[in-house]
Amino acid sequence: MIIGGLQKLTLIDYPGKIACTVFLAGCSFRCPWCYNPELVLQEEIKTSTKISEQDFFQFLKERPGLIEGVVLCGGEPTIQPDLIEFCQKIKKMGFLIKLDTNGSSPEVIKELMDKNLVDYIALDIKAPPEKYIKAIGAESYFGTKGIRSNFWAEKIVNNIKKSIELLKQGQVDYEFRTTVIPVLLKKSDILKISKWICPAKKYFLQEFQPGKTLDPKFKNVKPYEQKYLMDILRSIEPFFEICQIRGFKS
Predict the structure, then answer these.
(1) Where are the domains of the chain?
(2) What is the pLDDT of residue 133?
(3) Distance CA 205, CA 244 (A)
(4) Order of strands across the sheet that contains 96-101
(5) Strand residue runs (E) in the chain
(6) What is the enclosing helix (H) or strand (E) of 57?
(7) For the residues 174-179, what does the mean pLDDT come to?
(8) Which residue from 6, 120, 139, 213 puts its CA 20 to 30 A from 18's CA?
């Protein structure tokens, strides 16, 4: 397991739980607005500081009664070949597990659910289906063009659809969420996403925060104003049991 970072305490990443967050290196997407390039780009992964599994599990051994759960994020955790074994070790120590995923590996999500190795799943919906190839940076980073691009996009969107349906079965608690990137997504796109994933339990809109991004062009992109996001929220609330906005600074 390639562990690129550890946040020892979080009160917000696992809803209703005191947890730690483990950042797993490597990703199946190249979203240009990603704020963790050191967990995505191979050249940065190779040179970045790592945390050994031994040190991580020693940390957990010292935390019973202090934290309730472990958040697995990245990067994309489901591309890790030893994720199942990693989760089994965490569960044997008595901790809950929340998985943050882009949904590109529905077969891994299903295995985790079937083996009772995950308690909460947050699935990032990057864009409506027709915009996925752009939103995940496929053309720039994987060289997908023309017919090949269309084939690749269809494959990814089909995997996302499978992951969406798996979560909506209600086997584990879950949420869908979308970071609203001004240069990529507008109100009509969020409406399309909402109609694509509804009806569903929870859907969160996340405000884009400029700063460190995988593509430097997104570094200074100005976030949408709260008024605009609230207008979107009012339009999509009827589709979900819980629908909220995350990320506004006070």
Answers:
(1) 3-246
(2) 87
(3) 6
(4) 3-10, 19-24, 69-73, 96-101, 120-124, 173-180, 200-207, 240-246
(5) 3-10, 19-24, 69-73, 96-101, 120-124, 173-180, 200-207, 240-246
(6) helix 53-61
(7) 98
(8) 213
pLDDT of residue 250: 34
In whole angstroms, what is the distance from residue 139 CA to residue 167 CA?
A: 29
The 10s digit of each residue's pLDDT in 73-89 is 999 999 999 999 999 99
For residue 76, the SS3 value is coil
Question: How far apart are the C-alpha atoms of 248 and 238, rounded to whole Å?
Answer: 22
The set of residues, in sequence order, having a beta carbon less than 8 Å from that of 128 and lying 6+ positions away, is 189, 192, 193, 196
> How many Å apart are CA 237 and CA 202, to the nearest integer?
10
Q: Which residue is listed with tokens 């494959």?
A: 155
Question: pLDDT for 15-46, tens place per residue?
Answer: 999 999 999 999 989 999 998 888 988 888 88
Residue 198, token pair as written in the block: 């509804």
- Per DSSP, 225 falls in state P
Question: Which residue type does 116 have?
Answer: N
Residue 40 CA to residue 76 CA, distance in Å, equals: 8
Q: Crossing angle of helices 146-168/187-197, nearest 10°?
A: 50
Is residue 2 within 8 A of residue 50, CB to CB? The reply is yes
Q: Are 26 and 74 in contact (CB under 8 A)?
A: yes
DSSP one-letter code for 67: B
- The fold of 3-246 is TIM Barrel (3.20.20)
Contact 73, 19 (CB under 8 A): no
Rounded to 5 degrees, φ, ψ at 136 are -95, 10
